[in-house]
Amino acid sequence: MIALTRSVPPSITRCELTHVARQPIDYHRARAQHAAYERALETLGCRIQRLPDTPHLPDSVFVEDAAVVFDEIAVLTRPGAASRRPEIESVAAALEPQRTLAFIEEPGTLDGGDVLAVGKTVYVGLSRRTNADGARQLEHAVAPFGYRVVRAAVDGCLHLKSAVTAVSDGAVLLNPAWIDPRVFAAHDRIDVDPSEAAAANVLRVGDRVLVAAAFPRTNDRVAQRGAQIAIVDVSEIAKAEGALTCCSILVRTLGS
Asked: Is position 159 annotated as part of the catalytic site?
């Protein structure tokens, strides 16, 4: 597994914010947390591939939003925030040796954080960043490979993956206040602890689950359901409305 990442830019203090209040971000601490995140991914079996630094792009550490990668194809997005669209070129260059590429085009918008693939089902969040045309274009790109796209309205948070992520092939972790649980009725369900609204964003890597240190109650729920968890602190990155899935694009190496 390759994990595409990008360093924390010094301009992160000017990041886009939608649902959280702006707070001072300690740039050096954010860099240290990001480095620890990369080390955790390496421990879980990933090979880190750093994308070029883009110090002038405040949100560029959140590489997930630039592409959605399947075994058969990589779909480069058209982010809902226009300030993020210059991030796409370098991500496309990194993915081109690995996958056939498709691109979301105007008037579609799509953020990778709004796409959750669980097996052959692809959930797409309709949010402030992803519109119906973006979802339609993604469906057109992946349907030939047997994927089924399910749309879900996102309310109260930035992205679909702010509200729900997968912890295994058959189980999802979600916040029922931010997403309709009925959309995920086909899966076993773990609810976040009510006191930890933002805890649903975890990153599954193989049979392990990377979780955020800020949410111990929810992490206990995940562990009690049999998941092997690894804990990292991303509290400074969270001030930029980022989370665990946001900071990497996982690419399965094929034919090895």
From this structure: yes
